[in-house]
Amino acid sequence: MQWAVATYDTAFGYVSAHGAPLLDLLDPQPDERVIDLGCGTGVSTAEIAARGADVIGIDESLEMVNAARSEHPHLSFAVGDAHDFTISEPYDAVFSNSALHWMSRDPSAVISRVHAALRPGGRFVAEMGGAGNCAELIAAVQTAWRVFGLPEPELPWYFPTPAEYATRLEEGGFVVRLMEYFDRPTRLAECPDGAADWVRLFAPELIAEVPPELAGPLLDRVNELAAPALRRESGWMADYVRLRFAAVRKPGGDELVQSQAPQAPPPPHTPPGAHPSQPPHAASTSQTPPAPHTHSAPQA
Q1: pLDDT of res. 191
Q2: Would strands 292-293 and 86-87 be described as parallel, antiparallel, or unpaired?
Q3: Residue 145 near residue 225 (C-beta atoms within 8 A)
Protein backbone atom coordinates (compact mmCIF):
# COMPACT_ATOMS: atom_id res chain seq x y z
CA MET A 1 0.00 0.00 0.00
CA GLN A 2 1.45 3.36 -1.08
CA TRP A 3 -0.03 6.11 1.07
CA ALA A 4 -0.33 9.77 0.09
CA VAL A 5 1.64 10.71 3.19
CA ALA A 6 1.85 14.40 2.35
CA THR A 7 -1.95 14.81 2.44
CA TYR A 8 -2.85 12.23 5.07
CA ASP A 9 -2.75 14.51 8.14
CA THR A 10 -4.00 17.65 6.39
CA ALA A 11 -6.87 16.45 4.23
CA PHE A 12 -7.86 13.59 6.51
CA GLY A 13 -6.95 14.83 9.95
CA TYR A 14 -10.28 13.54 11.28
CA VAL A 15 -8.70 10.08 11.49
CA SER A 16 -6.50 11.36 14.31
CA ALA A 17 -9.03 13.82 15.76
CA HIS A 18 -11.65 11.12 16.31
CA GLY A 19 -9.08 9.07 18.22
CA ALA A 20 -9.41 11.25 21.35
CA PRO A 21 -12.18 9.19 23.03
CA LEU A 22 -10.20 6.06 22.22
CA LEU A 23 -7.15 7.44 24.00
CA ASP A 24 -9.32 8.13 27.02
CA LEU A 25 -10.50 4.51 26.88
CA LEU A 26 -6.88 3.33 26.75
CA ASP A 27 -6.04 5.65 29.68
CA PRO A 28 -2.26 5.17 29.41
CA GLN A 29 -0.47 5.54 32.72
CA PRO A 30 3.01 6.93 33.41
CA ASP A 31 5.74 4.38 32.67
CA GLU A 32 3.34 1.88 31.07
CA ARG A 33 4.67 0.29 27.90
CA VAL A 34 2.31 0.73 24.95
CA ILE A 35 2.39 -0.30 21.29
CA ASP A 36 0.59 1.94 18.77
CA LEU A 37 -0.21 -0.60 16.06
CA GLY A 38 -0.76 0.96 12.65
CA CYS A 39 0.59 4.26 13.93
CA GLY A 40 0.57 6.16 10.64
CA THR A 41 2.37 9.48 11.00
CA GLY A 42 2.59 9.12 14.77
CA VAL A 43 -0.07 11.58 15.96
CA SER A 44 -1.62 9.15 18.45
CA THR A 45 1.81 7.81 19.38
CA ALA A 46 2.83 11.29 20.49
CA GLU A 47 -0.40 11.77 22.44
CA ILE A 48 0.16 8.48 24.29
CA ALA A 49 3.71 9.55 25.10
CA ALA A 50 2.43 12.92 26.35
CA ARG A 51 0.46 11.05 29.02
CA GLY A 52 3.68 9.57 30.36
CA ALA A 53 3.72 6.13 28.75
CA ASP A 54 6.71 4.55 27.02
CA VAL A 55 5.37 3.97 23.51
CA ILE A 56 6.55 2.59 20.21
CA GLY A 57 4.67 3.07 16.94
CA ILE A 58 4.59 0.29 14.37
CA ASP A 59 3.33 0.66 10.80
CA GLU A 60 3.66 -1.42 7.66
CA SER A 61 4.30 1.66 5.51
CA LEU A 62 7.91 2.83 5.37
CA GLU A 63 6.70 6.21 4.12
CA MET A 64 4.43 6.64 7.16
CA VAL A 65 7.16 5.57 9.58
CA ASN A 66 9.68 7.96 8.04
CA ALA A 67 7.14 10.78 8.32
CA ALA A 68 6.50 9.85 11.96
CA ARG A 69 10.22 9.85 12.73
CA SER A 70 10.59 13.24 11.11
CA GLU A 71 7.66 14.74 13.04
CA HIS A 72 8.46 13.05 16.36
CA PRO A 73 12.22 12.39 16.46
CA HIS A 74 12.17 11.80 20.23
CA LEU A 75 9.85 8.76 19.87
CA SER A 76 10.48 5.20 18.68
CA PHE A 77 8.95 3.87 15.46
CA ALA A 78 9.47 0.69 13.48
CA VAL A 79 8.33 -0.71 10.15
CA GLY A 80 6.47 -3.97 10.67
CA ASP A 81 3.61 -6.14 9.51
CA ALA A 82 0.97 -6.62 12.23
CA HIS A 83 0.41 -10.19 11.03
CA ASP A 84 3.85 -11.37 12.17
CA PHE A 85 5.61 -8.85 14.43
CA THR A 86 7.24 -10.08 17.62
CA ILE A 87 8.69 -8.36 20.68
CA SER A 88 11.37 -9.25 23.20
CA GLU A 89 9.36 -8.44 26.35
CA PRO A 90 5.62 -8.07 26.99
CA TYR A 91 3.85 -4.72 26.91
CA ASP A 92 1.04 -3.38 29.08
CA ALA A 93 -1.24 -2.32 26.23
CA VAL A 94 -1.70 -2.37 22.47
CA PHE A 95 -3.57 0.57 20.92
CA SER A 96 -4.84 0.88 17.36
CA ASN A 97 -6.91 3.61 15.72
CA SER A 98 -8.42 3.24 12.23
CA ALA A 99 -5.85 0.64 11.22
CA LEU A 100 -7.08 -2.89 11.96
CA HIS A 101 -9.47 -2.88 9.00
CA TRP A 102 -6.44 -2.54 6.73
CA MET A 103 -4.93 -5.72 8.19
CA SER A 104 -7.21 -7.91 6.15
CA ARG A 105 -4.97 -10.81 5.11
CA ASP A 106 -5.56 -12.76 8.34
CA PRO A 107 -7.31 -10.83 11.15
CA SER A 108 -6.91 -13.74 13.58
CA ALA A 109 -3.13 -13.72 13.04
CA VAL A 110 -3.07 -10.03 14.02
CA ILE A 111 -4.99 -10.81 17.21
CA SER A 112 -2.56 -13.66 17.94
CA ARG A 113 0.42 -11.32 17.58
CA VAL A 114 -1.22 -8.73 19.85
CA HIS A 115 -1.90 -11.46 22.42
CA ALA A 116 1.74 -12.52 22.33
CA ALA A 117 2.86 -8.90 22.74
CA LEU A 118 0.88 -8.36 25.95
CA ARG A 119 1.49 -9.41 29.51
CA PRO A 120 -1.36 -11.38 31.17
CA GLY A 121 -4.03 -8.79 31.97
CA GLY A 122 -2.67 -6.44 29.31
CA ARG A 123 -5.14 -4.29 27.37
CA PHE A 124 -6.04 -4.31 23.68
CA VAL A 125 -7.91 -1.08 22.87
CA ALA A 126 -8.83 -0.23 19.30
CA GLU A 127 -11.26 1.32 16.88
CA MET A 128 -11.77 0.14 13.31
CA GLY A 129 -14.31 0.17 10.53
CA GLY A 130 -17.26 -2.09 11.27
CA ALA A 131 -19.76 -3.88 9.06
CA GLY A 132 -21.46 -1.37 6.78
CA ASN A 133 -18.55 1.07 6.92
CA CYS A 134 -18.43 3.20 3.75
CA ALA A 135 -21.31 1.21 2.27
CA GLU A 136 -22.44 4.04 -0.03
CA LEU A 137 -18.89 4.83 -1.11
CA ILE A 138 -18.15 1.18 -1.83
CA ALA A 139 -21.42 0.71 -3.72
CA ALA A 140 -20.58 3.72 -5.91
CA VAL A 141 -17.13 2.30 -6.66
CA GLN A 142 -18.44 -1.16 -7.49
CA THR A 143 -21.22 0.18 -9.72
CA ALA A 144 -18.89 2.55 -11.57
CA TRP A 145 -16.48 -0.31 -12.27
CA ARG A 146 -19.34 -2.36 -13.71
CA VAL A 147 -20.58 0.55 -15.84
CA PHE A 148 -17.14 0.83 -17.42
CA GLY A 149 -16.93 -2.92 -17.99
CA LEU A 150 -14.06 -3.37 -15.57
CA PRO A 151 -13.52 -6.44 -13.35
CA GLU A 152 -15.01 -6.30 -9.85
CA PRO A 153 -12.52 -4.29 -7.76
CA GLU A 154 -10.75 -6.19 -5.00
CA LEU A 155 -11.33 -4.05 -1.92
CA PRO A 156 -8.50 -3.89 0.65
CA TRP A 157 -10.57 -3.65 3.84
CA TYR A 158 -12.00 -5.94 6.51
CA PHE A 159 -15.14 -4.58 8.19
CA PRO A 160 -16.43 -7.17 10.71
CA THR A 161 -19.66 -7.28 12.70
CA PRO A 162 -19.35 -6.87 16.48
CA ALA A 163 -20.20 -10.54 17.00
CA GLU A 164 -17.62 -11.68 14.46
CA TYR A 165 -14.78 -9.67 15.94
CA ALA A 166 -15.73 -10.47 19.54
CA THR A 167 -15.57 -14.17 18.62
CA ARG A 168 -12.12 -13.71 17.11
CA LEU A 169 -10.92 -11.93 20.24
CA GLU A 170 -12.31 -14.61 22.55
CA GLU A 171 -10.84 -17.42 20.45
CA GLY A 172 -7.53 -15.52 20.50
CA GLY A 173 -7.29 -15.54 24.30
CA PHE A 174 -9.00 -12.25 25.21
CA VAL A 175 -11.88 -11.27 27.46
CA VAL A 176 -13.97 -8.55 25.78
CA ARG A 177 -14.75 -5.77 28.25
CA LEU A 178 -16.36 -3.30 25.85
CA MET A 179 -17.70 -3.50 22.29
CA GLU A 180 -19.35 -0.43 20.73
CA TYR A 181 -20.81 -0.28 17.22
CA PHE A 182 -22.05 3.06 15.91
CA ASP A 183 -22.58 5.27 12.88
CA ARG A 184 -20.22 8.21 12.55
CA PRO A 185 -20.99 10.25 9.44
CA THR A 186 -17.89 12.34 8.88
CA ARG A 187 -17.53 15.46 6.79
CA LEU A 188 -14.77 15.28 4.18
CA ALA A 189 -13.97 18.94 4.70
CA GLU A 190 -10.86 19.01 2.52
CA CYS A 191 -12.19 16.90 -0.36
CA PRO A 192 -13.13 19.30 -3.16
CA ASP A 193 -13.65 16.36 -5.49
CA GLY A 194 -15.74 14.43 -2.98
CA ALA A 195 -15.89 10.64 -3.21
CA ALA A 196 -13.26 10.69 -5.96
CA ASP A 197 -10.74 12.25 -3.57
CA TRP A 198 -11.62 9.61 -0.96
CA VAL A 199 -10.87 6.84 -3.48
CA ARG A 200 -7.62 8.49 -4.52
CA LEU A 201 -6.35 8.52 -0.93
CA PHE A 202 -7.75 5.31 0.54
CA ALA A 203 -7.84 3.01 -2.48
CA PRO A 204 -5.13 4.22 -4.88
CA GLU A 205 -4.34 0.64 -5.90
CA LEU A 206 -7.79 0.39 -7.50
CA ILE A 207 -7.05 3.37 -9.76
CA ALA A 208 -3.57 2.05 -10.52
CA GLU A 209 -5.15 -1.00 -12.16
CA VAL A 210 -7.35 1.12 -14.44
CA PRO A 211 -6.23 2.25 -17.92
CA PRO A 212 -5.04 5.86 -17.49
CA GLU A 213 -7.51 7.25 -20.00
CA LEU A 214 -10.41 5.80 -17.98
CA ALA A 215 -9.36 6.98 -14.51
CA GLY A 216 -10.83 10.48 -14.75
CA PRO A 217 -14.21 9.51 -16.23
CA LEU A 218 -14.42 6.55 -13.86
CA LEU A 219 -13.97 8.72 -10.77
CA ASP A 220 -16.44 11.25 -12.16
CA ARG A 221 -18.95 8.42 -12.32
CA VAL A 222 -18.15 7.43 -8.73
CA ASN A 223 -19.01 10.99 -7.70
CA GLU A 224 -22.28 10.94 -9.63
CA LEU A 225 -23.33 7.68 -8.02
CA ALA A 226 -22.33 8.66 -4.48
CA ALA A 227 -23.66 12.22 -4.56
CA PRO A 228 -27.35 11.52 -3.79
CA ALA A 229 -26.43 9.82 -0.49
CA LEU A 230 -23.27 11.64 0.52
CA ARG A 231 -23.20 15.18 -0.88
CA ARG A 232 -24.74 17.92 1.25
CA GLU A 233 -24.93 21.68 0.85
CA SER A 234 -22.13 21.90 3.40
CA GLY A 235 -19.92 19.41 1.56
CA TRP A 236 -19.26 15.73 1.11
CA MET A 237 -19.78 13.17 3.88
CA ALA A 238 -18.26 9.73 4.44
CA ASP A 239 -20.70 7.11 5.74
CA TYR A 240 -18.48 5.69 8.45
CA VAL A 241 -19.53 2.92 10.82
CA ARG A 242 -17.11 2.26 13.66
CA LEU A 243 -16.33 -0.69 15.89
CA ARG A 244 -14.63 0.29 19.16
CA PHE A 245 -13.54 -2.25 21.75
CA ALA A 246 -11.48 -2.89 24.84
CA ALA A 247 -10.27 -6.40 25.63
CA VAL A 248 -7.95 -7.93 28.20
CA ARG A 249 -5.51 -10.76 27.68
CA LYS A 250 -6.48 -13.78 29.78
CA PRO A 251 -3.85 -15.23 32.12
CA GLY A 252 -1.98 -18.07 30.46
CA GLY A 253 -2.86 -19.12 26.95
CA ASP A 254 0.71 -19.03 25.71
CA GLU A 255 0.35 -22.51 24.29
CA LEU A 256 -2.51 -21.25 22.10
CA VAL A 257 -0.45 -18.36 20.82
CA GLN A 258 2.59 -20.52 20.18
CA SER A 259 0.55 -22.94 18.14
CA GLN A 260 -0.88 -20.10 15.99
CA ALA A 261 2.14 -17.82 15.78
CA PRO A 262 4.37 -17.70 12.70
CA GLN A 263 8.03 -18.66 12.94
CA ALA A 264 10.00 -16.08 14.90
CA PRO A 265 12.00 -13.71 12.68
CA PRO A 266 15.78 -13.34 12.75
CA PRO A 267 17.42 -11.15 15.41
CA PRO A 268 16.39 -7.50 15.27
CA HIS A 269 18.00 -4.98 13.00
CA THR A 270 17.60 -1.30 12.35
CA PRO A 271 14.36 -0.87 10.38
CA PRO A 272 14.77 0.39 6.79
CA GLY A 273 14.88 4.15 6.63
CA ALA A 274 15.96 4.65 10.25
CA HIS A 275 17.83 7.82 10.99
CA PRO A 276 21.54 7.13 11.50
CA SER A 277 21.27 8.80 14.91
CA GLN A 278 18.73 6.23 16.06
CA PRO A 279 20.07 2.96 17.46
CA PRO A 280 18.61 -0.33 16.25
CA HIS A 281 15.37 -1.23 18.04
CA ALA A 282 16.81 -4.06 20.06
CA ALA A 283 18.31 -3.25 23.43
CA SER A 284 15.87 -2.71 26.28
CA THR A 285 16.50 -0.29 29.13
CA SER A 286 14.35 1.18 31.86
CA GLN A 287 13.99 4.36 29.78
CA THR A 288 13.34 2.82 26.37
CA PRO A 289 10.65 0.19 25.77
CA PRO A 290 11.79 -3.03 24.11
CA ALA A 291 10.97 -2.70 20.45
CA PRO A 292 9.46 -5.32 18.21
CA HIS A 293 11.41 -7.45 15.78
CA THR A 294 9.59 -6.55 12.62
CA HIS A 295 9.39 -7.42 8.95
CA SER A 296 9.12 -4.66 6.41
CA ALA A 297 6.23 -5.43 4.11
CA PRO A 298 6.77 -5.06 0.35
CA GLN A 299 5.54 -1.70 -0.84
CA ALA A 300 2.81 -1.69 -3.48
Answers
A1: 78
A2: antiparallel
A3: no
